[in-house]
Amino acid sequence: MRPLVLVGLAPLLGATDLLIKALGLSLVALPLLPLLGALAMLLQRVEARLRTLILLASACALLSLADLLLQAWALELRTALGIFLPLLLLTAAQPPANAAEGLRYGALFSAVAVLLAALREGLGSGTVLNHAEWLFGPAAGSWQLHLPGFSGLHLFALAPGAFILLGVLWAAARRLFPSSSTTDSDA
Questions:
Q1: How much is the mean pLDDT over the chain?
Q2: CA 9 from centre of chain
Q3: How many domains, the chain?
Q4: CA 9, CA 2: separation in Å to the nearest integer?
Q5: Which domain covers residue 84, as residue numbers?
């Protein structure tokens, strides 16, 4: 298993208690990872230590820009993401090899984050799209969907519930796509 996959677990598990938070994190990760991959590809001939420093500084600059944009246009969302937004910087420790790989990782991270968040929010609180106004503006305040007759099981809104649901999703993916999953010797 690549370290990049493990590095993404902290924001994946921590910021997916609400679907809106997962969408916000995805909006940052989707451009960040391909840009880091493109920069890593351009810096292939640079000495390893210097390349790492350049990638870290570039990742800090890109994430700072994303942070400022979120503070300007979605302050409540930025506040709710807390420490999990800066934790995306850990991906610069082992950046994707190229922009296509970065886009693939970003899309996979985003898809898993959104699916996990939808499940966690629905099972944990009995609602989906709670706080949609954080990302989509005041008009989205009425977008919240309530699951009829279900008030939620609080375990799924907490980190242990995220681990449980991520394990279920991983097992389902291995069952549905056995050829594309890693083998037991790779895990």
A1: 89
A2: 8
A3: 1
A4: 12
A5: 3-176
